[in-house]
# Entry
Amino acid sequence: MGFRTGRKYAITWCKKAENYDYVKALECYDEAIKRDPTFAKPWYEKGKIFADTPELPESWMWQSTISPYITGRPAPPYPEVGPVASKYKETLKLFNKATELDPKFVNAWFAKGYFYYHYVNGEDNAIKCLDKVIALDPKFESAWFIKALVLAKLGKHKEIIKCCDKAIALLRADGELQKIDDNYYYIADRWFTKANALSALGKNKEAIECYDETIKIRDKKSPPLLRKGIILAKLGNHEEALKCYDEIIKDDPYLQNVDMEKLYLVKANTLSELHGSIEPILKCYSSAIKTCAHKLPDLNSKSVNEHSWEKTVKIINRLEEICSQAKNNLKKYHDND
# Structure
């Protein structure tokens, strides 16, 4: 019957890929591309697999079973891997090919924008891709939210708020997405990102309102409670700030979802402002020091390298900062007695 080419055969291979793990799926997408190289979908789907499989070694794409021709160079014989191609460049090649073949392929533009944001720190390119998505589909909620996260990296707080407002409005209008908000990834995270931007702009009361919205929805309440407590302390409302910190410890006794070091330090500062007993303050500083020291790498390990030493120096510097902060605050505490 011969080798059959054409769009319908490419579509068949794409559907077949949905039933397999990533290695078999990649083989199917390769077959789809061979049958119709102008079909954007298999290029996009391959890009998603490349982007979403971080645990694979970078030499992975050189294996003869996985598209060696994508790199433009022949795969070296196994087990030699030759010069390792950059996984990031190969992923972008696939997404670029998809958008080149279909300039209105919204999901491909979004995937490329998210990839720039999440993997390669290309904020400017990410925003260009996400703006393209929004131009093609203004109701593409995730594009608005990921754009807000990109803008957060750039410190553009006013623009973040606009994007979050748009995302929240779109989610509220979408009943299907609201149904899955029990998983707290949707509306809650939009409110949290908006709250952080308001806090950075010094709009503390509005920020607290947004943190409260986050706390209502989210089952992991520690991060917004910590941020809310810090703002309350700035406003001089130390008792309410302390309630936030204590609620974190009550709801999250193992402190898995919060920056423990920060929590102990801000709680110590708040206790010192309230001029209570010195024992709880000392306990907080002690916990902060232990938390920081616990991050020290094991320098007796055989795997000690330059990175280990750099990390050790940074942690020691941080320990000095904590101890200095504790010393100054305790002196201030005694001076006020």
Summary: Residues 56-85 have pLDDT under 50 and may be disordered. The radius of gyration is 26 Å.
